[in-house]
Design brief:
It is built from 2 helices and 9 strands. By secondary structure, the chain is α+β, with helices and mostly antiparallel strands.
């Protein structure tokens, strides 16, 4: 009798999910449903005006949740850790993400390259060019 109840509950749960889930076509296409960019990335290149800065860190990682939030975390050679949480948007069909962050009182939108499992940040920093390239793990 106990097995029958468990099977009945599992069947009922599956039926409820089937009828209450939205159709995939109403979610904006397969790419936005599967969020191919979501996951863990490791920094492979970190330079400022062409000078290597990655060698100062044990690790620099990027985590994307597939729902609009990314976390960049680092651990330097001295063992110090830090992280920054940012928001992002994905434009379906485009080879980039839009990263949103606060600069004082205003929200800034920055286009960030995304292609073949790599995310490429470029940013002007005190007149110098910061380049960070993250590859999926």
């Amino acid at each position: 009798m106990k097995k029958f109840r468990l099977k009945s509950a599992a069947f009922l749960g599956a039926m409820l999910l089937t009828f209450t889930m939205p159709k995939v076509s109403s979610l904006g296409g397969l790419k936005s449903v599967t969020a191919p960019y979501a996951g863990s990335y490791e920094c492979k290149t970190l330079t400022i005006d062409g000078k290597d800065f990655l060698s100062f860190f044990s690790s620099v990682c990027l985590e994307m949740d597939g729902k609009g939030e990314m976390v960049i975390s680092y651990k330097d050679k001295a063992g110090n850790r830090g992280e920054k949480t940012l928001r992002y948007e994905y434009e379906e069909g485009a080879n980039h993400l839009i990263v949103l962050y606060q600069d004082g009182d205003r929200e800034v939108k920055k286009s960030v390259g995304y292609e073949k499992g790599e995310i490429t940040f470029t940013h002007q920093l005190n007149g110098k060019i910061l380049l960070a390239v993250f590859s999926s793990k």
